[in-house]
Fold ABC transporter permease subunit.
Amino acid sequence: MSTVFVSLWFALPFLPLVLWSFADQWMHPHALPTATGNEGLTAALANGGVAAFGDSLVLSLVVAAIATPLGAMAARALARGQVRFEKAITVLLFSPVMLPPFAAVLGVNIVLLRAWVPPAVGVVLVLVAIAIPYTTFSMRAAYATYDNGFDEAARTLGASSRLTLWRIHLPLIAPALARSAFLAFLVGWSDYLVTLVVGGGELVTLPLIIASSASGIGNESSVAVLSLSAVIPPLILLGVLSRTRNLNPGRQ
C-alpha cells in the first residue's frame, strides 16, 4: 500500500503535463482541456524534438561512459590511501560542483575556444568534469566497504590481474558502477548551461529545445510533450537500476 501511495505522490505532478500534451485548447476556468488533439506532438516534432532527443541521449551516454570509470579509479585510489595530498586532491576533484556554474563555464569556454577544441568535444569534456565528483563520491562510498580479500584470494589461486578484475572485482562493484553511471547520465541529460555556452548552437539537445519552446506563448502543449520525453529515459534507467539492485541484494 505504501508503494502505491509513494508512486502516486511522484506521478501526480506529471498529470498536468499529460493533459497539456493532448490539449489543443485549454481555457480558464475549465478544469480539463476544452479541445484535444495531437498539435503538441506535431509542434514538438517540427521543432526538432527527435533530433534533440537523440543528441541528448548520445551526449549523456558518452559522459557516463567516460566519467564512470574515471570516478571509479579516483575513488579506489582515495579509498586505499594511494594518493598523496589526499585532501587537496579531493578538493580539486569536487571543485567543479563548488564553483559558480555560469562564471566557471564562461572561463572554461574561453580556454576551449583558444585551444580550438570543437564545440561538441568541449561540451563532453566540461560535462565529464562536472560528473566526476558525483561518480567519485558514489564509488568511494562503495569502496569504503569493499573487501579486498576477494581480489587477494583470486590472485593467490593463480588468477591474473586482468582475470581478477573482470571475473571478481567488476561483478562485485557492478551495482555501485550502475549508480554512478546513472548520476553521470543525469548530468549530461539535464544540462542546459554548458551545452548552450560551450556548444555554441552546434549541439542542440532536448533541454535547449524545451527552453526555446517555453520562452514563447501558446506552446504549452509542445512544451508538455517535450518535457514528458525528457522524463522518460531517466525513469526507465531508474527502474532498471532498482530492479538490478533487487536482483543483487548482497552486492555493493
User: Anything to note?
Assistant: The mean pLDDT is 84. The chain is about 75% helix and 0% strand.
